[in-house]
Write a structure and sequence with these properties.
32% helix; 168 residues; binds S-adenosylmethionine; 3-stranded antiparallel sheet; alpha/beta; 4-stranded mixed sheet; Rossmann fold; 2 domains
């Protein structure tokens, strides 16, 4: 949805989106684009619901034009994911809660190595890197949003509004 909303600003930039989960069932569900009433009420702006979703019985189905542009695959984030390359934005929401501190540290370190110098990491609202990761720092404008600490590009980004956090 963000990529679609930002399309006019991004111009001819090629965007690739990789969506992963450990669970085959979750990946299949994401690929199918079916969301429960509860899920679409967790902060989705009404105008996005109207623009991108169709009711389907008791559930909601997302516009297939959005899912068609996403590569879905299973992956275990406890294993090396460096082969996926560098990302401009990483959403890793509500996953770290599953792990002990050593594993959180390991995942966050490897996530930060997979982030472009001016990239962003989104964690869940109740998650933080504070005390467990030295590579990332909170962004000035949004909770649960992080940028690289020692990157010149990230320092620049931290001074300004995030261009894409305008969902309401
Ligand atoms: C609480 S859900 C969060 C889903 C979504 N990000 C959200 O915020 O609604 C956590 C997800 O992490 C996945 N997961 C658990 N362990 C994992 C691992 N080692 N590697 C990748 N995904 C994992 C689970 O299968 C589950 O779908």
């Amino acid at each position: 949805m963000l990529a679609d909303e930002l399309a006019p600003k991004l111009g001819s930039s090629r965007i690739s989106i990789l969506a992963t989960d450990l669970s085959k069932a979750m990946v299949a569900r994401a690929r199918a684009g079916i969301y429960s009433q509860f899920e679409i009420q967790r902060g989705l702006p009404t105008r996005f619901l109207q623009k991108y979703f169709q009711p389907d019985g008791l559930t909601w189905r997302i516009d297939s034009r959005l899912t068609e542009r996403i590569e879905f695959r299973t992956a275990n984030l406890l294993e090396d994911f460096g082969q996926f390359g560098l990302f401009d934005v990483i959403f890793c929401r509500n996953l770290l809660i599953y792990f002990d501190e050593a594993r959180k540290k390991d995942i966050l370190h490897r996530l930060s190595r997979s982030l472009a110098p001016d990239g962003y990491v989104f964690l869940g609202a109740a998650e933080t890197v504070i005390g467990i990761n030295q590579d990332l720092q909170p962004h000035a404008v949004a909770k649960a949003l992080y940028v690289l600490k020692d990157s010149e590009e990230a320092q620049q980004q931290n001074r300004y509004q995030v261009p894409f956090v305008a969902t309401r």
